[in-house]
């Protein structure tokens, strides 16, 4: 049975790394003593080692040890044997490139669909959708494909931002960008605000946190959904 | 001799489409009676026809007619015979995909390097750099490559945005994104604020408009350059 947390962000303003999620992570990973961490997205170019140390520190609060996937000679085997998997945020283009390059995309997909509990934040959440086509990141490297895990039958836009009132900037708003996405792609997109996450349990997909989320579907006006809304009919 | 305007944006807040640039465009296209317009980037999903009409209206102010590249049976021939070329803004991933798909990337590159005057705004400016790797756009389609015209020996970041003071949003700032780019790419990046443009005349590359621009180079601190700065040593 799938058991997945798809979080908009790892960190809230004025909060520590993963802090707001820890009570839920304790439950989510309740039978897990060690998590396999995928540091490929390297936020601000941080090394795999430093990123893994940062994550280990956060998870030590709930007595879970962390091992980085880069520490294993055979990353596919590491995925197959993992008790739990966490993919951290950073640059989605880099993350997806590395998942393909190291040949672990299918392995993670299979493990998680078979029940290995998974946590994604930011870029690590983006890849839980059908494609990475609604990332906010810069294309700093060229991945072999935009196709991602598809743990949910729609796309994710993490760090969703409402238009800023009174802004004089002429760049596109997030909503405009997602509408452009729908010119060429038919799957719905969920805009997850910072502090929101999706909890996938088997066939159920529930919005969690205190905020509403914004749903974009092709050819229809966007709308808001409240926390605890069941989203498994969204496709 | 190359003759290129690379503008951060087509439109300033409270201004009309291309309005702030028109006096310069009159000089830039002074021997030109008809411009070939490339509408591939389709901002907000606007059709090629509607986008071309919008551009034609703006250029009618300076007595230049506009023909969209989509109106030609042979787009390569259209490029080769163009008196001037304008690529408008929108989504860079879509624009680059279409340039490759219609086989015109090399034709435009060749024409402009041979002296056909070129104007780019936003996405149409982004592609004047070595790659589209510093676009702000969403990857709504998968282009066959991120490589672009390389009219200048660096990358462009149009609509450059300074970090917003006091922001509580945890998504990456533009500067953080460009620093991530430099983990994997060696060419400098110029952050062009709205209202700025580069004027390329032969081997000269000058910053124009009233604002400074921000230069990012690998392994060095970012710095500002003033209007009229010669940038042809930046590489």
Automatic annotation (TrEMBL), chains A, B:
Gene Ontology MF terms in the entry: dipeptidase activity; serine-type peptidase activity
Q: What is its EC number?
A: 3.4.13.21
SUPFAM superfamilies per record: Class I glutamine amidotransferase-like (SSF52317)
Output the GO biological process annotations, alphabetical, semicolon-separated: proteolysis
Q: Name the top EC class.
A: hydrolase
Q: What are the protein's UniProt keywords?
A: Dipeptidase, Hydrolase, Protease, Serine protease
For this protein, the record's Gene3D superfamilies field holds: 3.40.50.880
Q: What family is it from?
A: Belongs to the peptidase S51 family.
Q: Which NCBIfam families match?
A: PRK05282.1
Its name, as the record gives it, is: Dipeptidase PepE
State the organism named in the record: Flavobacterium tibetense
